[in-house]
Design a protein that fits this description.
Layout (H helix, E strand, L loop, with lengths): L1 E4 L6 H13 L4 E4 L3 H6 L2 E3 L5 E2 L4 E2 L18 H22 L5 H23 L12 H6 L5 H7 L3 H40 L2 E3 L4 E4 L7 H7 L5 E6 L4 E6 L22 H8 L4 E4 L5 E4 L2 H16 L1
Parallel strand pairs: 1-2, 1-3, 3-5, 7-8
Antiparallel strand pairs: 4-5, 6-7, 8-9, 9-11, 10-11
Length: about 325
């Protein structure tokens, strides 16, 4: 099996698209060319060839008259075209390989849509010139573009087989980066899905106002925010750092405004200073923003949760 994409400078959309196909067809050869005969003979032609026809493995968007777009109106480039066809299958493959979890088809589709909304559509927007640069000019598309050889590389390599091999090597490195991003995106979403029932079954304390999670790495924010309006604080065991944490509950995903803040007197204090203010001997720290604090023991964090509730109720 052969996957062909264009030679010359590459972009994030073609690197993402080929990476998806390479995940699903790991034995496939990747070739970079614009020679019509090689493009025609390939099993997949990505971002080259002037044809969009998933049935024959053709995923180009440069041809005259192309108007493919998402329901939202965001246009497709090659990343989105391949993801549209193979995204759910790719998600399922990565979930099985990296989490050991077999996703139901509807869950794989749901996660693929979420990854398109969070990542893929922006690669397409950048490719078609419809997106502004990320703050600082270094969004994912720019990071991938940085893998292209610059004029100094080309001056040293010259032209011909050596230059082509170097550019293919750089394209492969970009694909590997994007593959890691895909894996992490899938692992995060599988973890979030599996965590829902754990959070729902977690111990509730202080008349329903404090939730205790035995594993602080379990994602809890969305479930608590949507389903547990009475909870004001979450306490958890940070297994990796062997300490306990208390967290406030953000009122929305993008907000630092909380249902209840930690006491103002704790802000920015650490160790002995925080212990003196709280009366908790093993208190560790409280962030200046008053959204997280720590204690070494479960008893310590329970005491801090009780104090935080008392301060909120005054």
């Amino acid at each position: 099996m052969v996957i062909v994409t264009h030679s010359g400078k590459f972009h994030a959309d073609d690197a993402w698209a080929v990476a998806v196909l390479k995940i699903l067809f790991p034995q496939a050869e990747v070739a970079r060319t614009r020679e019509p005969a090689r493009v025609e003979a390939a099993d997949f032609a990505v971002d080259v060839g002037g044809v969009w026809d998933p049935a024959t493995g053709r995923f180009d968007h440069h041809q005259k008259g192309f108007s493919g777009a998402r329901p939202s109106g965001v246009p497709y480039a090659s990343a989105g075209l391949v993801w549209r066809e193979y995204g759910a299958r790719c998600v399922g493959t990565l979930a099985a390989a990296h989490t050991g979890h077999q996703l139901a088809d509807d869950k794989a589709v749901e996660m693929a849509h979420a990854i398109d909304a969070d990542i893929v559509q922006y690669l397409d927007l950048s490719d078609v010139g419809a997106a502004k640069n990320a703050p600082g000019g270094y969004g994912l598309s720019a990071v991938v573009s940085g893998f292209n050889p610059n004029w100094l590389d080309e001056q040293n390599l010259g032209y011909g087989d050596a230059a082509d091999a170097h550019r293919l090597s750089q394209f492969t490195r970009a694909m590997e980066l994007l593959t890691d991003i895909m894996i992490n995106a899938v692992k995060y979403r599988v973890g979030a899905m599996l965590s829902v029932e754990l959070v729902r079954r977690a111990e509730v304390l202080e008349e329903g106002r404090v939730l205790f999670l035995e594993n602080g790495a379990v994602p809890w924010t969305q479930v608590v925010r949507k389903e547990m309006p009475k909870v004001l604080f979450v306490i958890s065991h940070n297994i990796a750092e062997q300490r306990h944490m208390i967290h406030t509950i953000p009122v929305s995903p993008d907000s630092f405004t909380a249902r209840a803040d930690l006491p103002e007197a704790w802000a920015g204090l650490r160790d002995a200073q925080l212990a003196a203010v709280t009366g908790v001997d093993d208190a560790g720290f409280c962030h200046n923003g008053r959204f997280i604090a720590s204690a070494k023991s479960y008893a310590g964090i329970r005491a801090m949760a009780s104090l935080a509730l008392q301060a909120f109720e005054k």
